């Protein structure tokens, strides 16, 4: 089951026994997870800039980062820098859930969740980690629902500027 609108995507993964929603902010992402059991796991592959290498990207595929520094700030927050194609991508990840544990192995940050609900907020910056952390803090302050509403409003403003003219009104209805 999938649902999508500008700035929003949701799906239920029956084989993983969970559902998730994703929305975006300027230079940040907000995720909401619902686990149908009492435990869940969220893994974020920062070593490949969030893209799994097996997914591929053109003929060459996704290459792993040249340099990856990841630091645990707290059990619910990680920050770091990934060098990828000569650019430093700075990130900060915050997970909001009950009874949270987290770990990192080979560039993959994993959050172990007890309970049914979790949210993650991921900020990005090409400038520095502090900027990525500020973007996460702003996303946390606005929240998932507020971020979704802002994304929908931004899309509505952009799409409402589009005007189409037809020589025949019946063409406009097709």
Can you tell me about this structure?
The chain is α+β, with helices and mostly antiparallel strands. It contains two helices and eleven strands; from the N terminus they run βββββββββββαα. An eight-stranded antiparallel sheet has the order 1-2-3-4-11-8-7-6, with helices on one face. The protein has a three-stranded antiparallel sheet with strand order 5-10-9, with no helix packed on it. β1 and β2 form a beta hairpin. About 3% of the residues have low confidence.
* Weakly predicted, low-confidence segments: 55-59
Number of contiguous helices: 2
- Oligomeric state of this protein: single chain
Largest sheet: number of strands, sense, barrel closure: 8 strands, antiparallel
Distance between the termini: 27 Å
Tell the overall outline: globular
- The side-by-side strand order for the widest beta sheet comes to 1-2-3-4-11-8-7-6
- In terms of DSSP E residues, the strand content is over 45%
Average pLDDT over all residues: 85
Structural class: alpha+beta
Q: How many strands appear in the DSSP assignment? A: 11
Portion of residues within helices: 10-25%
H and E order: EEEEEEEEEEEHH
Q: From the alpha-carbon coordinates, what is the Rg to the nearest angstrom?
A: 19 Å
Blueprint of the fold:
Layout: E1 2-5, E2 8-13, E3 18-25, E4 28-35, E5 39-45, E6 67-74, E7 77-84, E8 87-97, E9 101-105, E10 108-114, E11 117-125, H1 129-160, H2 169-172
Antiparallel strand pairs: 1-2, 2-3, 3-4, 4-11, 5-10, 6-7, 7-8, 8-11, 9-10
